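Could you please consider the sequence and fold following this short note?
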Amino acid sequence: MKWFVNGEPSDFNGGRTKDEIVNWINKRSGPPSKEVDAAALAKAIEDNKVVVVYYGANDDHFKSFETAASADDKRTYIHTFNADVAKANGAASPAVILYRKFDEPKVVFSGAWESKAIIAFIEESSVPTVIEFADEYIEPIFQKQKPTIFLFRDEESADSKKLDETFAKAAAGNKGKILFSTSGVTKGIQQRLAEFVGVTEKDLPRIVIIEFAAQGIDKYVFKGDAKAFNDGEVTTFINDWKEKKLEKFLKSEERPATNDAPVKVIVGKTFNEIV
């Protein structure tokens, strides 16, 4: 399904339910950003998990904001040209502020006034420091093909809270290097993620980095004690991955102890080496 404006197509990348398709069409056919008064602004901030607001005049700054808004089908964009409303909300003019229901609730754009910079700011700020994996985060990880470190754990276990806290500490110290996400292995989209990555209940807890390659994904498994790791060990794991010091995880039998027979035995770990 494609949407055409002046002969130029854009693809539909949303869900396949009636509501998702209708919302996409409404966003495409209406203005990319809605002008609001003080009351409507407060309600939008209260009602939405993420809302992006422009404060300022109807000038070139606003045009850059509108261009960014028109490229995004998922988030709510609103604006006000009223200087009193901006002042009441502690906003400079012009300003783009993203309000969210996680991490710091208010994030102010500080880049160049270009639509590409605004889009990058919004995409980065719309993702929590630690993602609890759900359907809404398929797009920023898998469609955008962003490398991600996952903590798979049993969220019902007594140790889950401590593991999450340590992982969150590591995420805060490594923000911008890689996305961080937690997941179980038994429910809904998390179960499908675990099957895709190759993690089962008997493996828990497990820390895995995935990165996207031409032939699918490459996986790297944390070799330390995933039941008692610290944030420094996670940082070292990430740095080793960035420096390409890690061995890719392959679903493989172990190398045979001897391999001197006329017919050689190959396993996943030795396929490239021997073949």
